[in-house]
């Protein structure tokens, strides 16, 4: 059969403009997808309600399709996941967790709390009347409620609770009030940690501490008899050694207090040098630190500096306080004060390490000093350090026969005496200290031990 010229053959392609072919294919694809989604929705999710405002309605070829956001479904899954996470955390928590009504009815309790209180089931625990007996042997439920209602939360509250078998345990509790929209308390929630072992250890330590204090007080009373007991058996001697250590500490403090008193007495005797001992002591410690003197030697340096003029206690006031120049005979007496200091302090074994400064601080680097005429490194290091500081403070201070010099002039004077009167190394360190205000280690600010 021959077709009319106006009809295309059956296998002939539709004659569409090229510009319409691609959009038409896209439209047909999406209509197919929408139809498939509509069928799946009606078959698999008939209970889900879709809203027109959340999608796009497309009409074409008799097919009506709606693309709906799945936000509601995702939210439902998220809530379910969170509830499951909370349930697992509640069930497997190592601390006890609970929820109760304000009137004392137990609503929830996790396995850890049941185990802590010795209950086999929640139902057995739920019979406990919190309003009447609470959780403890001496439980103040009303006080707990008043504090919780007032603050809204309680943290770290420790209390004594009672297990189902009557055994007392100690717990540390955190709690909070959960309120409704109108502010009414709906329930109390909390977590509980069993601190019984820690509490018992703490109480044992406190008892041990009290016993130790009692023993220390008892031994203190025995200190007066310790020296007389040294000739007894060896085991008694070892027992007394600890007491002697304590006594030596007390004696050390007593010695230092005595040294401070002597130093103040010297300053009070000579009003013109008031504060001299304190100033030279502080500066000597700083200079000794700058020169690298070990910290363990600083205490002896401090004591020696405080006692450097202790020998002047034997110098008559007429010479010591004389406003004018001294005669040769008077100088001879004045120059005895280092030897007098040695005679006064050397019998005290405790002060032997501190004797270098009182005995040798008037020695000179070139050997022309007194009382022994030592030279160079024969002079003890502490005395060489102190000699520079002593001259510095004396020249800077006012005297009845002259005004104090300016610091710059005193520095030049000391520089001029380097290698004759003073150790050059000490002079260099001193001038550097004065020029740059050197920051020193913490141990240089040594206080009385």
Strand order of the largest sheet: 4-3-7-6-5
How many individual helices?
A: 17
* Total discrete domains: 3
DSSP strand content = 5-15%
CATH class of the largest domain: Mainly Alpha
General shape: elongated
Order of helices and strands: HEEHEEHHHHEEEHHHHHHHHHHH
Q: How far apart lie the N and C ends?
A: 131 Å
Radius of gyration over C-alpha positions, nearest whole angstrom: 48 Å
Chain-averaged pLDDT = 77
What's the β-strand tally?
A: 7
The structural class is: alpha+beta
CATH architecture of the largest domain: Orthogonal Bundle
Low-pLDDT parts are: 1-14, 47-70, 438-449
CATH topology of the largest domain: Hypothetical protein af1432
Oligomer: single chain
- Largest sheet entry: 5 strands, antiparallel
List the helices and strands and how they pair.
Elements: H1 18-44, E1 55-60, E2 63-68, H2 71-92, E3 96-100, E4 106-109, H3 111-117, H4 122-126, H5 130-133, H6 141-151, E5 153-162, E6 168-179, E7 185-194, H7 196-222, H8 234-269, H9 276-290, H10 295-306, H11 317-320, H12 328-334, H13 337-345, H14 356-360, H15 381-396, H16 407-416, H17 424-436
Antiparallel strand pairs: 1-2, 3-4, 3-7, 5-6, 6-7
Helix pairs in contact: 9-10, 9-15, 15-16
């Amino acid at each position: 059969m021959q077709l009319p010229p106006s009809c295309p053959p059956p296998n002939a392609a539709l004659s569409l403009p090229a510009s319409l072919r691609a959009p038409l294919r896209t439209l047909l694809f999406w209509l197919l997808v929408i139809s498939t989604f509509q069928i799946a929705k009606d078959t698999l999710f008939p209970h889900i309600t879709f809203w027109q405002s959340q999608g796009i309605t497309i009409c074409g070829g008799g097919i009506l399709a709606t693309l709906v956001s799945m936000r509601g479904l995702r939210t439902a899954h998220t809530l379910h996941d969170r509830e499951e996470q909370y349930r697992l955390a509640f069930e497997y928590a190592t601390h006890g967790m609970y929820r109760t009504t304000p009137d004392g009815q137990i609503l929830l309790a996790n396995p850890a709390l049941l185990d802590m209180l010795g209950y086999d089931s929640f139902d057995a625990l739920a019979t406990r009347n919190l309003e009447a007996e609470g959780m403890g042997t001496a439980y103040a439920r009303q006080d707990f409620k008043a504090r919780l209602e007032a603050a809204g939360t309680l943290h770290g509250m420790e209390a004594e609770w009672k297990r189902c078998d009557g055994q007392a345990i100690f717990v540390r509790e955190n709690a909070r009030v959960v309120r409704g929209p109108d502010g009414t308390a709906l329930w109390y929630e909390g977590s509980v940690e069993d601190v019984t072992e820690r509490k018992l250890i703490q109480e044992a330590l406190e008892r041990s501490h009290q016993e130790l204090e009692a023993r220390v007080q008892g031994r203190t009373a025995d200190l007066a008899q310790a020296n007389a007991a040294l000739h007894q058996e060896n085991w008694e001697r070892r027992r007394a050694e600890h007491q002697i250590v304590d006594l030596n500490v007390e004696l050390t403090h007593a010695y230092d207090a005595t040294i401070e008193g002597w130093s103040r007495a010297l300053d009070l005797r000579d009003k013109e040098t008031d504060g001299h001992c304190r100033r030279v002591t502080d500066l000597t410690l700083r200079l000794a630190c700058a020169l690298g003197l070990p910290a363990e030697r600083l205490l002896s340096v401090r004591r020696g500096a405080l006692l450097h003029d202790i020998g002047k206690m034997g110098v008559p006031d007429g010479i010591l306080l004389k406003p004018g120049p001294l005669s040769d005979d008077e100088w001879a007496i004045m120059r005895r004060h280092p030897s007098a200091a040695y005679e006064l302090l050397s019998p005290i074994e405790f002060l032997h390490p501190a004797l270098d400064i009182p005995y040798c601080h008037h020695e000179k680097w070139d050997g022309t000093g007194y009382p022994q005429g030592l030279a160079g490194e024969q002079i003890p290091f502490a005395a060489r350090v102190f000699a520079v500081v002593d001259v510095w403070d004396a020249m800077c201070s006012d005297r009845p026969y002259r005004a104090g010099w300016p610091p710059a002039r005193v520095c030049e004077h000391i520089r001029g005496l380097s290698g004759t009167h003073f150790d050059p190394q000490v002079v260099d360190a001193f001038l550097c200290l004065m020029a740059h205000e050197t920051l020193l280690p913490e141990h240089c600010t040594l206080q009385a031990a």
